[in-house]
Amino acid sequence: MKITRVEVEHVARLARLELTETELDTFTVQMDSILAYVEKLNALDTEGIIPTSHAVPMENAFRPDEPGQAIGVDAALANAPRHAESFFRVPKVIE
Description:
By secondary structure, this protein is mainly α. 39% of the residues lie in helices and 4% in strands. It has a two-stranded antiparallel ribbon with strand order 1-2.
């Protein structure tokens, strides 16, 4: 599978990226090598392999989701660097 520079420019435009000529050349080569590797993987015979199989046995490590006692507002805010009333205060990130 060969990716063209035009396709890389299109992807960059969709991602709202401004790339230099050097970056476009670099990413075209890199994306082409990634797609070539994926093409090799597609050539593997995966017939009879369960899509979620793993090399080693795996188990769910999560505990059962059961309701418990809430810790309360005071305990939740105890280590907060800043709070106002019953809310965490965080720096403004949108101007």
